[in-house]
Fold this sequence. Notes:
Bound molecules: adenosine-5'-triphosphate
Family: Belongs to the SMC family.
Shape: globular
Subunit structure: Homodimer.
Strand order of the largest sheet: 2-1-3-4-5-6
Distance between the termini: 58 Å
Function: Required for chromosome condensation and partitioning.
Number of helices: 5
Protein name: Chromosome partition protein Smc
Organism: Novosphingobium pituita
Amino acid sequence: MHFQRLKLSGFKSFVEPAELRIEPGLTGVVGPNGCGKSNLLEALRWVMGEASARAMRGSGMDDVIFAGSGRRPPRAFAEVALTAKTDPDDQWGGELEVVRRIERGAGSAYRVNGRDVRAKDVGLIFADAATGAHSPALVSQGRIAAVIAAKPAERRMMLEEAAGIAGLHVRRRDAEQKLRATEANLGRLEDLMAGLD
Ligand code: ATP
């Protein structure tokens, strides 16, 4: 999966629609302090499903919506769209577009190639591609120190994410839940059958 484009509207300081093209090779973002460089990285995390407002440097998720400035009123919503090139033979037909939108007081909604999906589905797409909101490839300020100080279990999670197997853990948990529900149903069925004898 190769990220191609990040489009932001009403997200943090990006009040007007803005687009970042991610060409093959190295992309550099330069600018004075406070111009929004970290906000761009946060937008990437957010569209991939970040659920923690603290990780977005806010107290609630609505804080990612443009809060207004001297001359501009606050926005009612924020939207971030990520376009990526994928395998031409995969279920996305070679191009994936994930959109996350948040409306003040109404929470987030996701779309993948135009279809409404759950946050969990988006998480799985990126986990399978060995990336995501918590990918160790996204190195924000203070992160290096956090990696050095990480506990062995946290380091293991980073390695598992890098190896692309984080999504398998989610699927295993889902499968275990289904298995338990099926076992409970079978138990009830046996009780019913015993009642019919
Ligand atoms: P530095 O180089 O100092 O790390 P930076 O370029 O990474 O800075 P950011 O931290 O991305 O800058 O951007 C901070 C700016 O974003 C601040 O001016 C802050 O006021 C603005 N900002 C953050 N959230 C919002 C919001 N919800 N609405 C409007 N502006 C916001």
